[in-house]
UniProtKB/TrEMBL annotation:
Example GO BP: SOS response
Gene3D superfamilies: 5' to 3' exonuclease, C-terminal subdomain, GIY-YIG endonuclease, UVR domain, UvrC, RNAse H endonuclease domain
UniProt protein name: UvrABC system protein C
Species name: Lentzea tibetensis
A Pfam family it matches: UVR
GO cellular component, one term: cytoplasm
Recorded name of the encoding gene: uvrC
Coiled-coil region list: 204-231
UniProt similarity note: Belongs to the UvrC family.
Subunit (UniProt): Interacts with UvrB in an incision complex.
């Protein structure tokens, strides 16, 4: 592990100009590429206190052995150079916004004399118009099958086209009127191109004009008593309408946009993109990636745009709708405009249909993220492997079928709370979750808080297991398990060596000897055993590490939720501090009864005095105080 101070550039030598930088390891390989408005400000942040860095960032700077940079004139140049270097060097610490599979598109070969419609995957070519991407190739074929009766364009390969031209007979599609058979001269090249142009116009969103034209032709054929032709046009209209139903109109103004949303936690990010062309959702993409730095949506948008539209120039839409606009939005817009060859807007939708669609994409990102985690958690084989890996790595006698995790949450030492989550057989048991309001231990920081929570949890276990009977862990009155009756096989605490050591000391003090203890540090995902000078390092791809991370993250989420609830209750309860004679007990009773101060303000004196323990005089004082505050505001 390298010390970043050994290769830190001398103070004052880093320019303040915009540019792109590369971190290299001892072997000279590029491990990370980034850009900055000010190289000095950005690079200095990497050489700050290591303890304050994101775990992956810390790993990156300790893996690297040198840093170099290139100064550029504008932010647009920095964007382009960063993308080119990421593509060239494929650095291990850069997030790559790309799919693990290729998505099919509907290609129209306009550069050919007789354009062809076909399913296509791969790099974009000049002279070919693309529609999509679609989630599945069958979706394209289904759409084509509906539209070919209205737009009978060529779909065959060059070899088939040439062969049928030589034998003078069309293929089956030509006989059933799903191809105009240009191979045998049924239509001229110009007539066939008109059919293809109408097809492209329809897929581009110009549907109303097409529908009205066919309706006029059907009426005219009916008036001229050409009933067979009118029936054919009627069937064509039905086919067009069925095709339109498969691609629901979401935006009425023919919008050409990509809608992007994210869902993330400390380690991963889920990306969802909806491709809207001609006001319709033509395709959807989504994938989950590991995060390299602790970044917000602004930085994610910046990274996504530069990488997603770097190669696929023809897919750049007129608008890119994002959850937040990054700081260098103007440079990104200019770069996208150069890529597309026309003006591109990068913005956050504020209201209307576009805002509603953005919310839909965000829900899809969150759902995909949840499904991604559930797929891994729900896989029995993976869970069994994870428990076995943990047993082997920690030297346990048996697999840890019951794992408990403790996490502490606070803001600068105030409103200190803790959570205890339970996983059995690798799955969360939410009914067993517990939360704690930390009291004495809060004065000693996280270590003291963890000691208090562990002590309270296992004291309760010892107390409940002193009951006599065949099943001391079962409440004889309810028949249910007592809250803390069953010990875990493994206790995980959020933190490093100090947190693991204090938890082990508490268990030893209480005489609990059959519970293993580890600390899971967020920095480098190290597993610390009490009394050991070095941590246990599980492979990054280890299912055992993933399970421990999931347990830790769930404890963190549960603790944060309780902390926010407690802080919110304290802040809203402050509105009642000025009421004479109203103590904490009755204040809590009022908030519990009405749910919030806002609803309490709407209550009458009679309703307030109806709360158990609150007399008429106190109710009048509460009503008067809240009324005065409302008048002032």
């Amino acid at each position: 592990m390298a010390d970043p101070s050994t290769y830190r550039p001398p103070v004052g030598t880093i320019p303040e100009a915009p540019g792109v930088y590369k971190f290299r390891d001892a072997g000279g390989r590029v491990v990370y590429v980034g850009k900055a408005k000010s190289l000095r400000g950005r690079l200095n942040s990497y050489f700050a206190d290591l303890a304050g860095l994101h775990p992956r960032t810390r790993q990156m700077v300790t893996t690297a052995a040198s840093v170099e940079w290139t100064v550029v004139s504008t932010e647009v140049e920095a964007l382009q150079l960063e993308y080119n270097w990421i593509k060239e060097f494929d650095p291990r610490f850069n997030v790559r916004y790309r799919d693990d599979k290729s998505y099919p598109v509907l290609a129209v070969t306009l550069h050919e004399e007789f354009p062809r419609l076909h399913v296509y995957r791969g790099a974009r070519k000049r002279g070919v118009r693309y529609f999509g991407p679609f989630a599945h190739a069958w979706a394209i074929r289904e759409t084509l099958d509906l539209l070919l009766r209205v737009f009978p364009a060529r779909t065959c390969s060059a070899g088939v086209f040439k062969r049928h031209g030589e034998i003078g007979r069309p293929c089956l599609l030509g006989y059933i009127d799903k191809c105009s058979a240009p191979c045998v001269g049924k239509v001229s090249a110009d007539e066939h191109r008109d059919i293809v142009d109408d097809f492209c116009d329809f897929l581009a969103g110009k549907t109303d004009h097409m529908i009205k034209r066919l309706e006029r032709e059907m009426s005219a054929a009916s008036e001229e008593l050409e009933f067979e032709r009118a029936a054919r046009l009627r069937d064509d209209l039905a086919a067009l309408r069925r095709a339109m139903e498969k691609q629901a109109v979401v935006l009425g103004d023919g919008t050409d946009a990509d809608v992007v949303a994210f869902a993330q936690d400390d380690l991963e990010v889920s990306v969802q993109v909806f491709h809207v062309r001609g006001g319709r959702v033509r395709g959807q993409r989504g994938w989950v990636l590991d995060k390299v730095e602790d970044v917000d949506d602004k930085v994610l948008v910046d990274q996504f745009v530069t990488q997603f539209y770097g190669e696929d120039v023809e897919s750049v839409p007129r608008e890119v709708l994002v959850p937040e606009v990054p700081d260098d939005a103007e440079a990104l817009q200019n770069w996208l405009s150069v890529q597309r060859g026309a003006k591109v807007q990068l913005r956050v939708p504020q209201r209307g249909d576009k805002r509603a669609l953005m919310e839909t994409v965000a829900r899809n990102a969150a759902e995909a993220f949840g499904q991604h985690k559930l797929r891994r958690a729900g896989d029995l084989t993976a869970r069994s492997a994870a428990l076995q890996e943990i047993q082997d790595a920690l030297g346990l006698d048996t697999a840890p079928l019951r794992i408990e995790c403790v996490d502490v949450s606070h803001v600068q030492g105030t409103d200190v709370v803790a959570s205890l989550v339970v996983f059995e057989d690798g799955l969360a048991r939410k009914s067993e979750y517990r939360r704690f309001a930390v009291r004495e231990g809060a004065q000693q920081g996280d270590v003291g808080s963890i000691a208090e929570v562990v002590r309270r949890r296992f004291q309760a276990m010892l107390r409940e297991n002193t009951n006599t009977g065949p099943n001391p862990g079962i409440d004889p009155e309810t028949g249910r398990a007592r809250k803390f009756a069953y010990p875990p096989n493994l206790l995980v605490v959020d933190g490093g060596a100090p947190q693991a050591a204090v938890a082990a000391d508490v268990l030893a003090e209480l005489g609990v000897t059959d519970v293993a203890v580890v600390g899971l540090a967020k920095r480098l995902e190290e597993v610390w055993l009490p009394g050991e000078p070095d941590p246990v390092i599980l492979p990054r791809t280890s299912e055992g590490l993933y399970l421990l991370q999931r347990v830790r993250d769930e404890a963190h989420r549960f603790a944060i939720a309780y902390h926010r609830q407690k802080r919110s209750t304290r802040m809203t309860a402050s509105a009642l501090d000025g009421v004479p004679g109203l103590g904490e007990t009755r204040k809590a009773a009022l908030l519990k009864h009405f749910g919030s101060v806002r609803k309490l303000r709407q209550a009458s004196v009679d309703e307030i005095s109806g709360v158990p323990g609150v007399g008429r005089r106190t109710a009048e004082a509460v009503f008067a105080t809240l009324s005065q505050e409302e008048t002032k505001s």
